[in-house]
Amino acid sequence: MMQISKAIASADGLFEDDAELVRSLVDEWQSKHTRNVLRDQYYNSHVPVKDLGVSVSPQMARKLNPRVDWAAKCVDYWADRTQFEGITSEDESQEEILRKIVRQNDVKNLIHKVISSALRHSCAFLTVTAGDVERGEPTTVISGYPATAATAIWDEAKKRISAGMVVVETAKFNGSQRREPKLIYVFTDEYVIILSREAGRSWQAEYVPHSMGRVPMEPIAYHATLERPFGRSRITRTVMSLVDDAQREMMNMAAAAAFSAAPQKYLLGADKSVAEKIAGSPFEAFIGSIFMVTEGKSGKIPNFGQLPQITMQPHTEYLRALAAQFSGSTGVPLQSLGVVTDNPSSAEAIDASKEDAVVDIKSFTNACKRSLETIAVMALASENNMSYMDALGSTGAIAVNFANPAMPSIVSQSDAMIKQISAMPWLAESDIALRELGYTDEQIMQLRSDRRKAQVRAGANAFLDKNQANAEVADADENNE
Q: What is the pTM of this model?
């Protein structure tokens, strides 16, 4: 587990006011880090079973140790349905610049990672910095950081981040098995403070001014509120508790299944030597093809019997109840948790089970759109070497596009668009219609190009046809004369 210590606040060249700011940022990071790491452990199913010690022996519990990936499911179900599709602008020149920045920084892939991290930890961060072209970087670099490697201080008056810190690079120093920060960026309204160190050396601070006029850092937060501007995690305490219960029940089910495979038998009135022999090798006594017991010393024949076989139904019903609780708490449909009902659900029932999730994901994508619009303006400001406010004033309307979280089928989506276009024919000329039909931004660009080529060919053909008609009319007039 990586640690950030307040030693970075003692970096050579760091001003005292900024040193106090760095200490505040480290305090903020440390206050959340333990819980963020715990949520990562639940997401990766690295949390062992919390056994109550009343159902199975400690030795059996260590051997079984089952895992349940419900925590990952409640994050991935949202992340997979929050699909970034691109950024558009009413200004075609600006849109071309944004498209280049998105392509150079692989923003589509980056946004998916950032969203997944934000859903795990409550928030993640995007930064915009000037790139080092000589090192092969684009002129504008957009980077993403999880809450385990970044932190920020929120300014309620300005409704934005007032200072932020990200761990850019880590390394193993002095043969340590744990990675430690090697390169850290601290963002303020005027500077990017670069804190770096090498093995055996102290931290060094370097001030690099930027023209943004504000912190070039923006959070992607899930369910941000006035009290919690950086949101909350999808992996709540309720989720963790239910995962613990489910893992414990999976262990109990495995133990019950093992005992069910070998029903308990009993032998009454057997000779002591026979009883000792059977007790010495109960497995052989169970699987032996012939089970023979002679008369006891008293001449009585031992009485053999078998206890009723253990039923698995109470365990499966309890696990189903836990899954239902989990579904109700997270909005993940029950069938996505592997719970199969006797009767297949109808299409209407499946859509109804997704309704809560779709509404919540739409709310989350709206928050993502606002943050990404800010990042887009920052990127244009960095590209044109101007302040954020100047870029905001000179930028046309920017739209951040996400796929419909309901994920309708192509057939139903196409049918809906045809009906809308029949009512509003001019809608067919808009790229929104193409986007709603499922075309990507790259495909829309190709369609635009093909449409322009077709229009040019149609115009040229019309011009040639008109000239040909005029020539024929002229020839006819000459013949008449």
A: 0.80
